[in-house]
Amino acid sequence: MTMDKAKLHDLIGLLADPQWRTETIKDLCLFMGVSSITCFVKDPELEIMLPALGFQQTYCHKKDWDALISASHEGGMSKGDIRLADGATMKCTVLSYNGICAIVFGGGCPLPKHLESLKALLPLLGSIFHYELSSIQQGAQLKLAEQSVHESRDISQSLQLARKELQLALTEKELEIQERKYIEKELNQSEERFRLLVDGIRDYAIFTLSLSGLVTTWNSAAERILGYGAQEIVGLPLAAIYSDSDRLNKEPDRDIETTGKKGRSHAKRWYVRKDGSCFWGNCTITPLDNEGMAGGGYAVILRDETELKESEDKIQYQAYHDALTGLPNRLLLEGRLSRALASVQDDDFGLAVLFIDLDRFKNINDTLGHQIGDKILQEVATRLYSSVTSEDTVSRLGGDEFVVVLNSVKSREVIIGVIKKIQAVMRPTINVNGHDLHVGASIGIAEYPLAGSTVEKLIQSADTALYKVKESGRNSYAFYTSYMHAQVTDRLSLENELQHALKNSEFEIYYQPIVSISSGSILGVEALMRWNRPGKDLQHPDVFIPIAEEIGMVNDLAEWSLREACTHVAQWLKQGMPALYVSVNISALQFATSKFIPTVAKVLLETGCPAKSVQLEITESFAVTNIELTIQKLRELNSMGIKIAIDDFGTGHSSLSYLKSFEIDCLKIDRSFVSDCITNNHDAVIASTIITMAHSLGLEVIAEGVENFDQATFLREKGCDIMQGYLFSRAINKKSFEKMMWERTTLPLVGIR
To answer: Reduced to 3 states, what is the DSSP secondary structure of residue 641?
Structure first.
């Protein structure tokens, strides 16, 4: 029995229907497990389509087909070999039912697999088959049983239904394919957007590494920060951007190892650019998946934080160093001293703390200005630093106070040797803006453990020893001893009381008459401050003025003194007392301030004291410190009508050149020349020369400290104009002076020859 060629062609046509196109026939053929389709008739459509789909079409002998098909109609299935057109043979199985045939070319494949394929295929052809395998003595036999057969449906209707159902199935398949392609497209676009995003980040170098630590990707910020182009760096190890020391310490390997173990590594260190320059980087390495070791390797995010580190380092430096000199400040000093104390306890060596204060620096700073003062401090810092070893510490506490910590001190002789070096480097003058200035240093020394075993105690003991040096003449040094504590306690008590004395009205003005040497008339008075210190004797200025200068009270005291004296003179004039002037001492600090001239004018205005009734005394030493400033201010005072006297003349830098430039009214011969003018020929010559010189310049001469008639006689013979001293009167309080003036306005000159 032969198979209807039309039915076979319809079956083959089902596979080649142009409506299903490439994916349909390809999927169906793969589903059936065949790689080629064999026909015994030529089919133009298949000849064109099958090769394009990767399948081949072959031809076999019609006689072989007829035999197999006839056998299948009789038994439902037939198996055998067919000869192909090229002479080869192929195993073939034909299934047949009611004229519908399905042909499977085995190619050595087991029959059950093909039957499974046909089970899915045959329902699409319009019939539903159920099959089972049963074992019999002669072997396996395939029994086909029809579950339901639609006899009324002809083959064309079956094929039409099959096409529709297969079209539906393949449409779903196509939708699935389209969805997969869409997802792939979206993923590609997402990756592109992510790449653009990463490349657009300018502050962070972002790159990836393989599991072995080789660079695999490199963004544009990485090119800018590290200097490598992507083509240059890809394939190089992470170590390429590490410093030599970090590579030697295997830091790159350690970072990757940490990332693998902990899921993240973070480090801040110096990294190296392509050109060899370094930058401070903040680097984070993370795995590209949750496990950290499988998959794509690692992601690296690196930021250049050099400016941030420099800013942090600057803040850190400023927190521990003096802004002016660059020396360690108190905070760093105490930290180093604390560590030194911890280590010295285990050593055979000791340590010492030197507290250094610059002598008379405040006068220089206030008279010449803070700019010059700052340059002096910078030069002093350099000189002190050069006097010690690298193991020692030189620090500035503030103002003109320095502290030196000497480590590994074997004996007191070592300490004295360092002090000698300090004194030697401080000896040369410091030239600042044309001023040759000499700055001495007073040094207090505290030895461990004699003067203390803590940071606070050692610094305090060195400061205590420093006070002792200042009291004994300055520009020297002293080691701390236990009895100094009581002395310093008294000094601190005096400072504390002095700060409250002005508010408590404990100061008083005493007046010493200034007398005409020719007539004995009282021409004026010198105003001298006294301190009625509670529980103590009356304190003279030489006790509290130096301390007032150190604690910054001198300007307040000077203004109070000037105001008090001018108030008294104004009262005396109103009361009808004979006209006289008051001579007030002006400190260098007061004279140097910009507020000095306005303050004087304000005091005169508020007290009602005439300017001609005021004489201001400035010392020769500070008058020549800043000649230009002195000339300017003396000119302003002179224009106001105030008289000017140079005090302590002869003890400073006497010079006719500055006397010619200064607008002054008189010179005061220092008492040191007056006291020995009778017994010491040199003093007599100096006093006589001063008088002659002053008169030649049109200036009056006042001799202070006249205590006996022989001195007064000598001065009168030399032409001195005015005198003051114990010979005429000691300094007396306001009430006593008023009584003197109302009783007599002249003092007896009996005994003066």
So the answer is: coil
- What burial letters (b/e) apply to 325-338, b meaning 16+ CB within 10 Å? bebbbbebbbebbe
Q: DSSP for 434-498?
A: TEEE---EEEEEEETTTT-SSHHHHHHHHHHHHHHHHHTTSSSEEE--TTHHHHHHHHHHHHHHH
Of 35, 87, 34, 33, whose CA–CA distance to 59 is shortest?
87
Spatial contact of 282 and 196, defined as CB atoms under 8 Å apart: no
Residue 19's Cβ-count burial label (10 Å; 0-12, 13-18, 19+) is exposed
Q: State the pLDDT at residue 348.
A: 62
Beta pairing, strands 507-516 & 435-437: unpaired
- Reduced to 3 states, what is the DSSP secondary structure of residue 625? coil
Q: Are residues 326 and 251 in the same domain?
A: no
Domain endpoint, select from 261, 289, 311: 311
Percent of the chain topping pLDDT 70: 69
How far is residue 327 from each of residues 102, 237, 542, measured CA to CA in Å? 102, 44, 35
The tally of domains found in the chain comes to: 4
Helix (H, G, I), strand (E, B) or coil at 92: strand
Residue 191 lies in a domain: no
**35-44, 281-290, 633-642: segment of lowest average pLDDT:** 35-44
Q: Are residues 685 and 585 in the same domain?
A: yes
Dihedral (Cα; 649, 654, 658, 662), 10-degree rounding: 0
Q: Are the C-beta atoms of 359 and 546 separated by less than 8 Å?
A: no
Q: Are 94 and 68 in contact (CB under 8 A)?
A: yes
How does the average pLDDT of the chain come out, rounded? 78
Report the Cα 601 to chain-centroid distance in Å.
48
DSSP string of 663-700?
--SEEEE-HHHHHTTTT-HHHHHHHHHHHHHHHHTT-E
Same domain membership, residue 407 and residue 368: yes
DSSP per residue over 274-313, as a string? TTS-EEEEEEEEEESSSSSSSSS-EEEEEEE-HHHHHHHH
Residue found by looking up tokens 């000896």 in the block: 427
589, 555 in Cβ contact below 8 A?
yes
The 10s digit of each residue's pLDDT in 454-487 is 999 999 999 999 988 887 777 899 999 887 877 7
Residue with tokens 């197999």: 68
For residue 187, the model assigns a pLDDT of 60
Q: What is the CA radius of gyration of the chain?
A: 57
Q: For 538, which DSSP code? A: P
Q: Long-range contacts of range 487-493, CB-CB < 8 Å, 24 or more positions apart?
A: 488/463, 488/464, 491/467, 491/547
Residue 644: domain span: 510-743
**Same domain assignment for residues 534 and 677:** yes
Contact in structure between 461 and 372 (CB atoms under 8 Å): no
725 and 616 share a domain? yes
Residue scoring higher pLDDT (369 or 193): 369
Residue 265 has which token pair?
């590594």
Fill in the DSSP letter of residue 579.
P
167-192: pLDDT as tens digits: 666 566 666 666 666 666 656 655 55
Q: Which two tokens stand for residue 22?
A: 């490439």
Q: Which tokens is 242 given?
A: 């590490």
CB 329 within 8 A of CB 375: no
* CA nearest to 465, candidates 454, 453, 451, 455: 451
Other CB atoms within a 10 A radius of the CB of residue 419 amount to 21
pLDDT band at 46 (very low <50, low <70, confident <90, very high): very low
Residue 684 lies in a domain: yes
